Amino acid sequence: MVDRLFQIVYTLMNQETVTCGELAEKFECSTRTIMRDIDKLSIAGVPVYANKGKGGGISLLSDFVLDKTVLTDDERSQILSSLQAIKETGYGEEKEVLNKLSSLFGADTQDWIEIEFSRWGEPGKEETYFKQIKEAILKHRIIDIKYAASHVECSDRKVKPLKLCFRGFAWYVYGFCLLRNDYRFFKLKRIADLFVTHESFTPIPVGRVLNELFEQSKEVIHIKIQVHKQQLYRVLEELPHGVILEDGSMITEFDANDESAIINYILSLGAYAKVLEPAWLQEKVREQIEKMILIYE
Q1: 146-163 burial, b for 16+ CB within 10 Å, e for fewer?
Q2: What are the pLDDT digits (tens) for 118-145?
Q3: How far is CA 105 from its chain centroid?
Q4: CA distance 144 to 153
């Protein structure tokens, strides 16, 4: 009944006048039930009234909004802002919810966030995967993916997806990998192909899992590097801010747990970065540089 009362109010907010018969048909009940609902709304303080005769019907006062909600102004604003953020991450139906709540609260949503998923040269692919995985999570469907893990050729995986996560600069899907018989994170950017199957599974609550992304496997490496001022703009976006030296370069320290990934990152800075610590990592970067030189000989 409460849901029907809410829907009646929302219907009246979007239509100037509705007849009792139209409401009865919409909510599959009798006109007598609708009239009782109108009386209840009136008693509750909702300014609803009925006009008899030709062209008459049930209406709300034109300036009515649901300002008698238990939510404060700040709470309503937070709800609308949160839905705005959710809408930008790729969810579809939240746009309709956002518009409805804006109407109910008598407030305009502030367009405060914009997110673009696509990468250079491959527009829309990651966003498509995001939407497919989201749908699979909500409908409890197993996904088939072709995944490129570190140092390994692409492998076929069946995964029970449980949660989409964002950390650092990347989206991950967290789920149960049937190949490894264990819970795993899969970076969306490393998925070469994805298919949502018709196979269903029973989900289990997993709580917060992002800490596992850093802790789950490898030993933490403490790294110290010096970066030339020409690459400072990039490092400031990606690593902790460090000490700026007189020549404009920066020394920064950070922790990582993926040796291969960090070596590749340092190499991507070219001649503008040097590993200071640990010594063994400095040597491994040097070995990779020597292998690269051999390719061009």
Answers
A1: ebeeeeeeeeebebbbbb
A2: 555 555 677 788 889 988 998 999 999 9
A3: 25
A4: 16
Write out the residue limits of the CATH 2.30.30 domain(s) in the chain: 125-215
Task: Look at residue 253 and give its three-state secondary structure.
Answer: strand
Q: What is the pTM of this model?
A: 0.51
| Domain topology for 2-60 | Arc Repressor Mutant, subunit A (1.10.10)
Per-residue pLDDT at 141: 95
Tokens of 233: 């703009």
- In this structure, are residues 65 and 59 in contact, taking their beta carbons and an 8 Å threshold? no
- Give CA–CA dist 283/260, Å, rounded: 13
CB 24 within 8 A of CB 31: yes
Q: Model confidence over 175-213: pLDDT tens digits?
A: 999 999 999 999 888 898 999 999 999 988 888 887 766
Instruction: Find all residues with CB under 8 Å of 282, minimum gap 6, and list them.
Output: 274, 275, 276
